[in-house]
Design goal:
The structure holds 2 protein chains of 2 kinds. Chain A is an alpha/beta fold. Helices cover 38% and strands 15% of the residues of chain A. Chain A has one domain: Amidase signature (AS) enzymes, CATH 3.90.1300.10. In chain A, the strands form 2 sheets. An 11-stranded mixed beta sheet of chain A has the order 1-3-2-4-6-5-12-13-9-7-8, sandwiched between helices. By secondary structure, chain B is mainly alpha-helical. Chain B has a domain of 39 residues. The longest helix of chain B has 21 residues. Chain B starts with 8 loop residues before the first helix and ends in a 14-residue tail after the last helix. The model of chain B has no long low-confidence stretch (mean pLDDT 83). The chains are: A alpha/beta, B mainly alpha. Chains A and B meet through α9, α11 and α12 of A and α1 and α2 of B.
Chain lengths: 467, 62
């Protein structure tokens, strides 16, 4: 572990203070990150498209604007990475697939447009699992151990943040694809409430489960990014026209009296000891800060939550890809091809029954959140998988990497609730462990406040991999 | 509905024809296993869910 304080490892909040005071310039900051990419990305392989020239041009414009007193706010001059699932005007957006290797959007996705309007500098596009359909992002590696995956599907964003190859990044999360790479790379990521952030211009995996959200090296940074990214979008009918709070202003560090629900079933079954220990310690920390720890039981939570999730995501994905798949099915990667073939064969009755089950899961989480302000769980039951690993071994069963990654995360996609992952420990072999906090619909502010209070009391989010 | 029907690979291949696709032969065993596992899991869950649960699909009149 190192405690580097180089420019490329600044948080957005730290960099913003220096940029506003003109202590550093956007060009200096952008160049420092580009130098870092040059230094280590040959090993990590996070960027699929690096826009160095364009980024430096944007940085020079930002520098001139700031010098002239036209400071736009905390994202002005901040270099960011964009998951290759998000449309970027004039730049190939392949979604990690041969199918779209020559797709060049004419306009930005809404989120990218909003980030640019807030002054962010787009460094380039980072890897995703093909069409976000998997918990990996080949060929990207985990900076904490190059033999491990960065998880996925937003694995390029997670790895790049952990290695100092951007200050913020976009992610998308259908069954955990922001939070899983957040956990295994030791960074922060939030899946906002369904309808909080526009998905316009982001390739679809599953219409009813997809969420777009920010990833960063601290909760405070997520707060800054989320405010810029969120809001109603006429191009995305799932977004709601409700006010977007100034999240950063709510990060008081005070969680006295906050009711924190800890599920006594499901979320601690088959968990690696290091994960259990780290999360238990996190509970003690939050309690010491004044949080009220309340044990909760979740009705309907058991082994059949995952089949419900898969029985929604697979037919929805197969429907999205139906036309292309019939014409060019052999061009998809083998794993996605198999998933899409399976998805074509679901009975409508199975899909509808899964949607009924989903209502029960939503009701169960709503009942728990009637008693508490937030729920606390491990993000994942495991640390990062090794490249090529197919299963995790438990006492009496094997579990696929896909299932292990989705198990604690997909319930919050099914319910559409806001959920964050922040670092809360390291395993014996120095691999990061994530803590998940989930809240009530559109109450990202409370989730962020609790996560930020935890970060103010610990230094897990400041640990960096040796590279 | 009967639970006595055992799904075989050839059934899945025929179902694919109905869906208008051709399955990749090497994927058939995995597809068969996954379809069975997921269908059974979804049905098991539904037996414990409230009888009046309606699908989680929201329609907005606009």
């Amino acid at each position: 572990m190192t405690t580097q304080t180089e420019l490329h490892y600044l948080t957005i909040a730290e960099a913003a203070r220096l940029l506003e005071r003109k202590t550093i310039s956007p060009v200096e900051l952008t160049q420092a990150v580009l130098d870092r990419i040059e230094e280590v990305d040959g090993r990590l392989k996070t960027y699929v498209t690096l826009l160095a020239t364009e980024a430096l041009s944007a940085a020079r414009r930002a520098e001139q604007d700031i010098q002239c007193g036209k400071y736009l706010g905390p994202l002005h001059g901040i270099p960011m990475a964009i998951k290759d699932l998000y449309d970027t005007a004039g730049v190939v957006t392949a979604s990690g697939s041969k199918i779209r290797s020559d797709y060049v959007p004419k306009s930005d996705s809404t989120v990218v447009r909003k980030l640019r309007e807030a002054g962010a500098i787009v460094l380039g596009k980072v890897t995703t699992h093909e069409f976000a359909f998997g918990f990996d992002a080949p060929p990207t590696r985990n900076p904490w151990n190059l033999d491990c995956t960065p998880s996925g599907s937003s694995g390029g964003s997670g790895s790049a943040l952990a290695a100092g190859l951007c200050l913020g990044a976009t992610g998308s999360d259908t069954g955990g694809s922001i939070r899983a790479p957040g956990a295994v790379n030791g960074i922060a990521g939030i899946k906002p409430t369904y309808g909080r952030v526009s998905k316009y211009g982001v390739a679809v995996l599953s219409w009813s489960l997809d969420h777009a959200g920010p990833m960063a090296r601290s909760t405070a940074d997520l707060a800054l990014m989320l405010r810029a990214m969120a809001g109603h979008d006429p191009n995305d009918p799932t977004t709601l026209d409700i006010p977007v709070p100034n999240y950063a202003a709510t990060l008081s560090g005070d969680i006295k009296g906050l009711k924190i629900g800890v599920p006594q079933n499901y979320f601690f079954d088959d968990v690696q000891p290091a994960v259990k220990n780290a999360v238990t310690a996190a509970i003690a920390t939050l309690k010491s800060l004044g949080g009220k720890i309340i044990e909760v039981n979740l009705r309907h939570f058991g082994d059949d939550v995952l089949p419900t999730f898969f029985s929604i995501v697979m037919p929805e994905a197969a429907t999205y890809h139906q036309k292309t798949f019939r014409e060019r099915g052999h061009e998809y990667g083998a794993d996605v091809q198999e998933l899409l073939e399976t998805g074509q064969l679901f009975l409508a009755t199975t899909y509808i029954t899964a949607q009924r089950n989903r209502s029960a899961i939503k009701a169960s989480l709503a009942a728990a959140l009637d008693m508490v302000d937030i729920l606390l769980t491990p993000t994942l039951p495991v640390t990062a998988a090794r490249v090529g690993q197919e299963n995790y071994q438990w006492k009496d069963r094997q579990e696929s990497v896909f299932a292990a990654c989705a198990r604690f995360l997909c319930p919050f996609n099914l319910a559409g609730l806001p959920a964050i992952s922040i670092p809360c420990g390291l395993s014996e072999d120095q691999m990061p462990i994530g803590l998940q906090l989930a809240g009530k619909p559109f109450d990202e502010a409370t989730v962020l406040r609790a996560a930020d209070a935890f970060e103010k009391a610990t230094d897990w989010h400041q640990r960096r991999p040796k590279l | 509905m009967t639970n006595s029907i055992v799904l075989q690979e050839e059934d899945v291949i025929r179902a694919a024809k109905l869906a208008g696709i051709t399955l990749t032969p090497k994927f058939c065993p995995g597809i068969l296993a996954r379809l069975k596992e997921l269908r059974e899991g979804v049905l098991r869950f539904s037996e414990n869910a409230a009888e009046d649960a309606i699908p989680a699909v929201r329609f907005r009149a606009e």
